[in-house]
Amino acid sequence: MARLNYSKWDQLELSDDSDIEGHPKSPSNVDKKSLIRWKQRDIHEKREIRRHRIAQLRGEIACNEVLLPRLRTITNDVQSGGHIHFSSLVERLKTQPPTEAPAEGQPTYDQMLQSLLLQVWEETKEKGVRRDDPELDKALVDGLQGHLTKLGEHQENIKVELEAEEKEQTRKITSDDLHEGFDSKYIPPKPSPPPVTAPQKNKGTKKTKETMFETLNPQSASASPTAESSAPDADDEDDGGDEDSLPPLTPALVEFSKLPVRDYEPSWQFIQGNREVIVPGATDALLVEAFAAERRGEKRYAKQCVHQGLLLQYCDKLGPDGVSLFFKRMVSDEKRAQTVFLKDVEDTYTHLAARVIATQAEEEQAAQGREQIQLMQDDSSQPITFNVPDGPPPEDLRLEGGTEGLDIEQVRRALQMRWDVFQAFDDALKKALQNGTLEAVNKVLGKMEVADAEEVVKMLEMVGILSFADGGNVRDMTNPAPV
User: Fold this and answer.
1) Using an 8 Å Cβ cutoff, are 472 and 377 in contact?
2) 271-272-274-276 Cα dihedral, nearest 10 degrees
3) From CA 282, how far away is CA 248, in angstroms rounded?
4) % of the chain exceeding 90 in pLDDT
5) Which of 43, 75, 183, 356 has a CB 3.0–4.6 Å from the CB of 294, allowing a cystine?
6) How far apart are CA 442 and CA 447, in angstroms?
7) What is the block-wise mean pLDDT of the chain (483 residues), using blocks of 10 residues?
8) What's residue 290's pLDDT?
């Protein structure tokens, strides 16, 4: 049987009461709790000093590792170039811009080398060697080699010291060495999102029609049933059925529908983070939005909705692992699956666009039979005219042609009112009035509700834009009688 290794417990820094017992002759006012706090503070202060010293030694070693090779290069260059190269190097280090430094707030490496070279020059002068002395070159080289040797020895010494400090730091287990080895947590899965379904209508109550008959003999009438209950009216049940049955477009599906076509990586990433788009009814909601976008003229967005809707449909039809299987086929080297999918997208969009055109044509045809207001001209010799203003009344307004007796301020207010009313109309009506033809104006009026069209005609007459000659009428085209 293998023996257990208990050597790791040797690194625990433990203490008992005997470690902090005071001297029998110590002052009585120093209690045991204070001694414990002093002991703890002493331990923490020593750890902090050691930590600071280790950081200092590491920084100094890193700095020396940069200076040592540069100092060797300078020594070799001075040995070959003499004092002339030495002087030029000192001048260059003094004038060139400062380079990188070991740390912020410390001298740069160039400044350190310049200080060392000046120190070598001063030491050479102290030895009695002058500028014109033939031994100057040798003295400079000896001085550089001496500093190079000292720096190398100092580097080795601080490496030894760093190793000793790091060993002492790891000799005892402290709170800084504690870390979480492993952890086990249970994260419950996200609940399945609800399907995208249309709001259900409450069909628990049904409307009935009851017909009451008044009789001359109430007693005899009570013997037989006098009320008839009709079957539920199908029209009542279907009111608003088309709009209520449309599945809603959730915010996640709106964002998903705006992803680019044929770029499958964004769709894959979105589905991974938003599983609520993989629900029943999502494809129908996107196709409904595509139909609405095509009606608005947003063809590109409509095609995006079709693409994303069919993408979700394919993922659903491929089974439980359909999402990953679909995207693997789309990004694989074999393009057959992608060709089949894109052809389905094109065919579906073409069919949807054709249905939009057919629906709009049906709506226009149905609108021709609805109630509308039209301007009718009874006599071709007395046409209906439109006095469309070109702009607000000018500041220098003049009355001519028999209107000199009118109040010019009242005329100005009338002209301004005509311009304000014209500006309040929508662009379609303004263009029709500027066109000046009765057909153009009637076309715009025919698309309005009866109440809105009547209000427009009333405003046109009030401000003088619409001018009826004798025989002109406003007619409700669903009723031949003039209004």
Assistant:
1) yes
2) 70
3) 9
4) 11
5) 356
6) 9
7) 63 55 53 79 86 89 88 87 85 78 81 86 83 81 88 91 86 66 61 59 46 42 40 41 60 90 88 85 90 92 92 89 88 80 92 90 70 71 79 78 71 86 89 86 84 88 74 48 41
8) 92
Which of 59, 69, 139 has its CA nearest to residue 103? 59
E strand or H helix at 377: strand 373-377
> Can you read off the two tokens belonging to residue 230?
């009709």
Q: How far is CA 88 from CA 115, 123, 252, 268, in A?
A: 14, 18, 71, 65
The per-residue pLDDT for 14 is 56
Query: Is-contact 117 86, C-beta < 8 A?
Result: yes
Paired tokens of 54: 């280790």
Task: Give the integer Cα–Cα distance in Å for 47 and 50.
Answer: 5
CA gap 326, 344 in Å, rounded? 15
Contact 285, 249 (CB under 8 A): yes
- Going by the DSSP 8-state scheme, the letter that residue 12 receives in this structure is B
Q: Is 186 helix (H, G, I), strand (E, B) or coil?
A: coil
pLDDT at residue number 2? 58
Q: Whole-angstrom Cα distance, residue 374 to residue 457? A: 10
Q: How far apart are CA 63 and CA 462, in angstroms?
A: 93
Judge whether 128 and 109 are in contact, CB under 8 Å.
no
Closest CA to 283 of 265, 299, 262, 306: 306
The reported pLDDT for the residue numbered 298 is 92
User: What are the tokens at 193?
Assistant: 């999102």
Pairing status of strand 373-377 against strand 385-386? unpaired
Which two three-digit tokens encode residue 306? 């079709």
477 by Cβ neighbours in 10 Å (0-12 / 13-18 / 19+) ranks as middle
Find out whether 257 and 304 touch, Cβ atoms under 8 Å.
yes
Whether 143 and 120 have beta carbons less than 8 Å apart is answered as yes
Q: E strands along 384-481, which residues? A: 385-386, 466-467, 472-476
Location of structure tokens 């303004």:
430
Residue position matching structure tokens 């669903």: 478
